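Is threonylcarbamoyladenylate placement plausible here? Inputs below.
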Amino acid sequence: MLVSATDENIAKAAEILKSGGVVAMPTETVYGLAGNAFDGRAVAKIFEVKGRPQFNPLIAHFADGADVESCAVMNEKARALAQAFWPGPLTMVLPRAKGCPVSELASAGLETIAVRVPNHPVARKLIKACGFPLVAPSANLSGTVSPTSPAHVSESLGDKVNMILAAGSSSVGLESTVVDLSEDKVFILRPGAVMAEDIEQVLGERVSYESGDALSPKSPGLLLKHYAPKIPLRLNAIDLNPGEALLGFSSLKFMGIKGGGAAMSLPESMRRNLSEEGDLHQAAANLFAMLRELDRTEHKGIAVMPVPDVGLGVAINDRLKRAAS
Ligand code: TXA
Ligand code: MG
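Reply from A.M.:
I modeled the complex. Tokens:
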């Protein structure tokens, strides 16, 4: 449903977001497909609506720079760039803060999080009304160009979103600059309206370009940043080897342990279920957190039960395969 971004409709959009729905919102760069950053199932829905075959990490949008501190570690460089460019088209990749409440799915299992404060009154009003940050990739189907007008969004996503908040064309029309501040050396991961020279001027140091994003890196430096478990992952397991932890999907009733025993009798520390009901949204929302919980060197490995390769299952299996290799 395409509606104009009046205060009343912004309030309605906030209600939809509070109950786990997704809404297309205007920003100064491009329209974003927004969901509650703290709600893993809402984040999973975003990937589903976009039809992304992979879980790319998403940008968390905040109403104010001060709100970022509970989610990301702002170092001195980050504070300087925030002061200079926020609100505005600059996204910073920073270490996740301790106890960061943003869904691990939004970070695609990485220990970093991308954050930005958009310079659009509607986006900021909406985030304020929600009381939580919104993760938002561009509001288009995967593999198509980013939408800079409400009409683009409805052509691409149509009735797959609960609401499209229309507020004219995006003034910048190009996605935000993504700068990686999570390490000593500063990298631009995606060029945008804020130029390398602008950033260099504020920081007083050279920044370099790193081409490719975190999931399809052109440089081996970024390749290392994928979530990789410490212990082996065994996919499509139909039973367990002794000493293995279990990452289940759906019913565990018929999972046995070789040499005797049932998976159900494993201690809690060795057993997680992505979704007892076999719900792929729930499984996606749980994926990275559960992998981390089982990833302990006292386990021989993690046996993963088959996850159906349909809908969100395609992206789940993509990440599992990466983690297994
Ligand atoms: O202008 C924009 O940034 C728009 C509006 C809606 O805010 N959003 C947008 O999101 O372009 P998206 O999901 O299409 O692009 C996010 C980019 C991707 O290239 C992604 O790989 C990168 O940011 N990114 C996000 N989190 C990251 C992380 N933790 N580490 C490295 N790159 C990250
Ligand atoms: Mg995009």
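Short version: The chain has nine helices and 15 strands.
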